Amino acid sequence: MGRSAAFQRAGILVARALGCAILALAAGIAPPASAAQVARPSAAVDPLAALARWTNDYHRLGANLNPDSDASLGPALAALRKRLASTDEFENDALVLLCDLASIAGAGSEAGMAEGSYVANERESNVRSQARVVLRSALDAPSGQGRAYFLATTVLAAAKDQPLARRIAVAEALIGRHWEPTLLALFTSSTVAERGLREASVCALSGWKSETVDRYLARLTLRALREPAFL
Q1: Would you call 72 exposed, middle or buried from its count of C-beta atoms within 10 A (0-12, 13-18, 19+)?
Q2: How far, in Å, CA of 115 to CA of 112, rounded?
Q3: 208 occurs within a structural domain
Q4: What's the CA gap between 89 and 96, in Å, rounded?
Q5: C-alpha to C-alpha distance for 219 and 102, rounded to whole angstroms
Q6: What is the DSSP letter of 93?
Q7: In angstroms, how far apart are the furthest CA atoms of the chain?
C-alpha cells in the first residue's frame, strides 16, 4: 500500500507540472530562448534611410532637432562611402542626398542661400564637411565623371525641380573637376538670378584649360562691370 501511495503522489505531481506548462503556454509565456536565438543579430540599419531621415528632420526642425541625433551621421556616412566605392543602382539617390547634407541648412535659410550670404552654424558646418568628404570620394572613383554628369544634368540644370541649396552643392562639388560633360550645365547655372548659385558655378568654371571657357568668363566679367551686383 505504501508503494501504491507513492505512485499516486508522483502522478499528482506530474499532472500538476503538465497543468502549469499548459497554463503558461496559454498565457503566452515563451519558453527560454536558446543560445543561438539570443545571439541572433538584428537587421542592419540602412545608411541611406538613416541619413535621409535626419536630413528631413533638420530641414523641418533646424536647431530644435535633438543634437544627440547627430551621432548617427558618422557611421551612416562611413557605410555610404564604402557602398559608393562600387557602382550600384542606389547611387543616384545617395549622390543627391549627399548634396543635401553638403548644403544642409535649417528652415528659413532660402533667402540667404539665394543671396550668397548664408553662413552655416557650427553644427551645419560639421555635417557639411563630413558629407563633402564622402561626395568627393564618390566623384574620385572610376565612375566619378558619370556621377558628375548625372548631378550636373539632373540637379544643377533642373531649375524648377531641384532645391537651390542642392544645386549649389553640385556646383561646389564640381570645382576643380573640369569635366567636359558638366560644362553646359555650369554655363547655364552661372547666369541664374540667385547669386549664391552664380558664384559657385563661376568658381567651378575657373581654371579650365579651354578657350571657350576663357571667352565665356571674359563676357561674365564685362557684365559684372556693367552690373556690379551680378558677381
Answers
A1: middle
A2: 5
A3: yes
A4: 13
A5: 30
A6: H
A7: 121
Domains in the chain: how many in total? 1
Categorize the per-residue pLDDT at 139 as very low, low, confident or very high, splitting at 50, 70 and 90.
very high
Provide the domain limits for residue 82.
Answer: 47-226
Q: Which long-range contacts (CB under 8 A, 24 or more apart) does 158-161 make?
A: 159/192
Question: Concatenated DSSP letters for 154-206?
Answer: IIIT-TTTS-HHHHHHHHHHTTTT--GGGHHHHHHHTTSS-HHHHHHHHHHHT
pLDDT at 25: 39
Domain membership of residue 21 (yes or no) is no
Classify residue 4: in a domain, yes or no.
no
Q: What is the pTM of this model?
A: 0.79
Name all contacts of 64-73 with Cβ < 8 Å and 24+ positions apart: 67/123, 70/123, 70/126, 70/127, 73/101, 73/127, 73/130
Q: What is the mean pLDDT of residues 87-97?
A: 92
Contact 151, 200 (CB under 8 A): no
183 close to 171: Cβ distance less than 8 angstroms: no
The answer to whether position 109 is within a domain reads yes
Rounded Cα distance, 29 and 15, in Å = 19
